[in-house]
Amino acid sequence: MSTINSHVSTSTIGGRGTTLDAIQMVNACNQLNEVKEKMSQEWKLGEISRCHSFLSSRS
User: Fold this and answer.
1) How far, in Å, CA of 39 to CA of 8, rounded?
2) For residue 1, what pLDDT band results from cuts at 50, 70 and 90?
3) Cβ distance 49 to 55 under 8 Å?
4) Can you tell me the distance from the alpha carbon of 12 to that of 52, in angstroms, rounded to the nearest whole number?
5) Domain limits at 52?
6) For the chain, how many structural domains are there in total?
7) Angle formed at CA 18 by CA 8 and CA 14, multiple of 5 degrees
8) pTM attached to this predicted model
9) Burial 17-37 (b: 16+ CB within 10 A, else e)
């Protein structure tokens, strides 16, 4: 994540990249974060259902 942020900084400050490049990088970062968040939520739901079925089977 930090490597992407530093790349965005150098591309805008260094003048080699365009603002559009930086915007695309930021968009890619945001999409990556959304995917990680979704995976995290799905993992938590999976853990909850696994615990629930484990507890149900013990009673």
Assistant:
1) 25
2) very low
3) no
4) 50
5) 2-58
6) 1
7) 60
8) 0.48
9) beeeebeebeeeeeeeeeeee
